[in-house]
Design a protein that fits this description.
Layout lengths: L1 E3 L1 H8 L6 H11 L4 E2 L2 H6 L8 H11 L1 E2 L6 H19 L7 H13 L3 E2 L3 H7 L5 E2 L4
Helix pairs in contact: 1-2, 5-6
Length: 137
């Protein structure tokens, strides 16, 4: 099962002229592996779907993305350790823009089979061995 990052869903939902088709094709190509989103991405998508869980759920069901994946205790510890490393990097001025979300979403992707995202470098800063599939390539 692959985790689909928030940005990829936004590409498709907003019919982004640069990435919308590429992201949709990437999801279709990996649909047989199973697709899910993290609880963090679900929350991040509220404004994209007019704050309607019904609209978001319909969209996710329509593109074949599961929405019921939960964080495990192991995910919590993986994210905790990634966050600790981030704080050390922050103190040395080496950070990126969405640290908490990326630590949590990436923890789920580490337990599963990887992540589909255009922000691979952000996730790799936490999880260097994470399988990242970039729909824009």
């Amino acid at each position: 099962m692959l985790v689909v990052d928030t940005c990829v869903i936004i590409d498709i939902a907003d019919a982004d002229p640069t990435y919308g088709t590429l992201s949709a094709q990437c999801l279709e190509a990996h649909l047989n592996q199973g697709l899910t989103i993290s609880p963090i991405s679900y929350v991040e998508l509220a404004p994209v779907f007019d704050n309607s869980t019904r609209l978001l759920d319909e969209f996710l069901d329509g593109v074949g993305i599961e929405k019921n994946e939960q964080f495990s205790i192991a995910d919590r510890y993986v994210a905790f350790n990634a966050w600790a490393r981030h704080i050390i990097a922050k103190r040395t001025k080496v950070t990126h823009k969405r640290p908490v979300a990326d630590a949590l979403i990436g923890a789920l992707a580490i337990r599963l089979d990887g992540i589909i995202t255009r922000n691979g470098n952000d996730f790799r800063s936490f999880y260097p061995k994470l399988l990242v599939i970039d729909p824009s390539h």
